[in-house]
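During the first year of the project, the team set up a workflow for recording each protein of interest as an amino acid sequence followed immediately by a discrete structure-token representation. This format lets reviewers and collaborators read both layers of information side by side without switching files. As required by the reporting guidelines, we include two representative entries from the current panel. The first entry is reproduced here exactly as it appears in our internal archive.
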Amino acid sequence: MNGAGLVGYRRLVKPTRALARALRAAVPAALLLAAAPVQARAPAVGGEVPVRVVSYNIHAGIGSDGVFDLDRQAVVLRALRADVIGLQEVDVRWGERSRWLDTAHELGGRLGMHVSFAPIYRVGGREFGVAVLSAHPVLAAENHRITRLSTQTADPAPTPAPAPGFGEVALRVRGAPLRVYVTHLDHRADPSVRATQVAEMRQIIRRGAGPKVLLGDLNAPPSAPELAPLWRDVTDADPHGSTHPARNPVKRIDYVAVSAGVRVRGAHVAETLASDHRPVVADLRLRG
């Protein structure tokens, strides 16, 4: 889809320095078990623009200890100093588990980042979905529909049907255009719904122009047959580590993937227990 087809977004007011200092002091640095050297937000070098991206399933703000704590997750994400963050399992006034908070904008406010939220489910005033946080203004945004097997139905045998929750945003990072997609694929052992979702995502991504980054929880390992078609269009920024479960992870189901026009300089998995997943961090270069 071209930029003209994208819809608007909501901008956040950045938090004060005093609030940022208070948040840093409130949560021990030990909650982030390991952090890689910060390289993002540097000037363009050799005609390429550096950008650091993160994909993180935040489990509605709940850590591996079962405790809801957005401040803890904000500390983890701030230490990674990303330009762009793709979040999955994001509650917006969804329920008591996340204290009825808008977790997307709560995290965006703590980090001083712009927010684009793409709901998968809307039940009354409650929403659950994916989000993009960006250090750079969001120029436009779209919430695409892909096939889903709903978990929000009383039907014991729901039928796969198109539903929203495949988010796309258009950014300009230090003068370079970038399209960012964020997704959360079906979690069931049967790969059929994921295979359909991959096919539909590929069609949407192909319509976008310029450099692209896909951030998401794909709920399958890189070698899964249903993901194989995706790797024809984008390249997995392999972090050489597992992401789930966060405590003693045994598999990687979280991804950063890039299109032509984006070069991967390095990627790693950040070791933290602030969610039940670990974040994937990638340092990229865009053609200036």
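The second entry, processed by the same pipeline in the following quarter, appears below.
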Amino acid sequence: MASPGASGPKHIAIIMDGNGRWAKQRGLPRQLGHERGVEALRRTVEACRNLDLEHLTVFSFSSENWKRPAEEVSSLFALLRLYVRQDLNTLAKDGVRVRVLGSRHGLPDDILSLIEMAEEKTSHNTRFQLNIAFNYGARDEIVEAAKALANDVEAGRMNAADIDSDAFATRLWFSGVPDPDLLIRTSGEFRLSNFLLWQIAYSEMMFVDCLWPDFSETELIDAINAYKSRERRFGGLTVDGLQSE
């Protein structure tokens, strides 16, 4: 286990919050706030690649977002279409692997096709992984994992006594993705909003006042530097600068 502050994060997760407020403060339509949010995502992906991170996970569309007005839901889908169509070739060429994680139930056919295309086209890339949580809710993810385990026990493929955290993790939508080292939420809100509840058990968390459309490499580097100054004990103790369980 690394000593305190010895290294930077390899996996950052971001709750991209504040698009609507950014637009409202400027007297602009919410749609324009979401469009500027896509530009912020573009900047952040590039910055993460340049900083040699291995994973970036972003909360793009929550399963609770279906409760928003139909027009706004449609505009959020349109932004995913736009992002994939405009950026996929660049991401593929730059060695970025794209994974879209969440429930596929209820998504329009063309969105499903775009997701499959993005994942297939970038499946062999290894430089950096962009995980997009889309139609995602952590409670839904946990319930689906529990159902999968129950089905395996019922079918005789495993015994209930064999269920442990590792077995559970392999049934999650985010199976195969390392847990985030650092979680950032923009806009000054102090909530997790049903995001990665299983995976962030030992993540460092930072809540920044910056609205997502204004997020830049500067804010990202500030968060990384703050992360480096923290002691990560993972439930252990720090003794004379060394960590022990």
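For the second entry, the following points were noted during internal review. The chain has a mean pLDDT of 91. The longest helix spans residues 70-93. Both points are flagged for discussion at the upcoming steering committee meeting.
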